[in-house]
Design a protein that fits this description.
Blueprint lengths: L2 H13 L2 H8 L3 H15 L4 E4 L2 E4 L1 H25 L6 E7 L3 H14 L4 E7 L2 H9 L5 E6 L4 H10 L2 E9 L1 E6 L20 E4 L22 E4 L2 H11 L3 E4 L11 E5 L6 E8 L6 H11 L5
Parallel strand pairs: 3-4, 3-5, 8-9
Antiparallel strand pairs: 1-2, 5-12, 6-12, 7-10, 7-11
Helix pairs in contact: 1-2, 1-3, 1-4, 2-3, 5-9
Length: 300
């Protein structure tokens, strides 16, 4: 298989459609379909499942794409340095749960890096997808948390996929709600106090369980529940619907002024916030900068 074919496969995976990928690559759809089938035949695996809405990576396909990206990225570095005589274009990707501090640390990374050529990716996504992104080497590292409730299941996945979890800091769970919320004046809030209000959770799709939830105590049955995928939307629902979510108490105030506050949740649960890496990889220099930026928020 050729380098060009690997680039085709990456584009198809990113677009989720052979038709859309063909437009992006200025190819005919039959030509691109033929190239995909040729690679699958040569690799001896099915890389994409075809469906009415487009294509989706198989489990083997995700692993294949992880290696394909590495090959293409290394070739681009070689071309930049020895053919185009340009500085190397640095690529760095983080997949993370929907943490404000993870996004802010990413800003600090970009500021510190400061070179002219780079491709940085921050992928706020579902818990299982974070694990798969790191496993398949799409992401350099993944940011998530462990607790008593999810540690057994996630640790087994880490072991199965040759990943290692590195703890950064611990945090006590807090309830996030609007400043004028009826419970905002409490020194501490219990789960019973939250029953009249909508619980806001991030969507995990096929992995809707407490083991993959971003929020603690998501296995508790509630009468009002709203699942969303966007971090900005969760703030809007806190303000407009008196909704709440449960997460760490780390929330840089300047990002939303004083409109959102956090109140400690009753109980002794602890969130161990950290990152995952492939066991055969070490932090790159960019990874080190990012992790140091994350550590600044442990006392916020």
């Amino acid at each position: 298989m050729t380098l060009q074919q690997l680039k085709y496969m990456i584009t198809v995976a990113e677009k989720g459609s052979i038709t859309e990928a063909a437009k992006e690559l200025f190819l005919s759809q039959p030509s691109l379909s033929g190239a995909v089938k040729e690679v699958e035949s040569e690799a001896g695996i099915v890389i994409f499942n075809r469906c009415r809405s487009g294509v989706a990576l198989t489990a083997e396909g995700m692993e294949f794409l992880g290696y394909a990206r590495q090959v293409v990225q290394q070739m681009e570095l070689l071309e930049a340095r020895y053919i185009d005589n340009r500085p190397e274009k640095q690529r760095f990707c983080v997949s993370a749960q929907h943490y404000t501090f993870a996004a802010n640390a990413f800003v600090e990374l970009v500021k510190q890096f400061g070179q002219e050529r780079y491709e940085f990716i921050l992928n706020e996504t579902r818990t299982y997808q974070i694990i798969m992104d790191v496993r398949n080497r799409f992401s350099d590292l993944g940011v998530l948390y462990l607790s008593r409730g999810n540690e057994n299941v996630l640790s087994k996945l880490f072991e199965d996929y040759n990943l290692k979890f590195y703890e950064l800091f611990t945090a006590s769970p807090h309830v996030f709600l609007r400043k004028g919320h009826p419970l905002a004046s409490r020194e501490r809030i219990g789960l019973k106090d939250l029953e009249p209000y909508p619980r806001l959770n991030f969507v995990q799709r096929a992995y809707e369980s407490s083991n993959f939830a971003e929020e603690l105590f998501s296995n508790e049955i509630v009468e009002k529940s709203i699942k969303i995928s966007d971090r900005a939307a969760i703030v809007n629902f806190m303000i407009g619907l008196d909704g709440y979510t449960i997460s760490s108490g780390i929330f840089p105030r300047y990002l939303h002024g004083d409109s959102i506050i956090s109140v400690p949740l009753d109980g002794d649960e602890i969130m161990r916030i950290g990152y995952i890496l492939n066991k055969d990889r070490e932090l790159s220099r960019l990874g080190e900068i990012y992790i140091e930026a994350l550590k600044q928020y442990q006392n916020n």
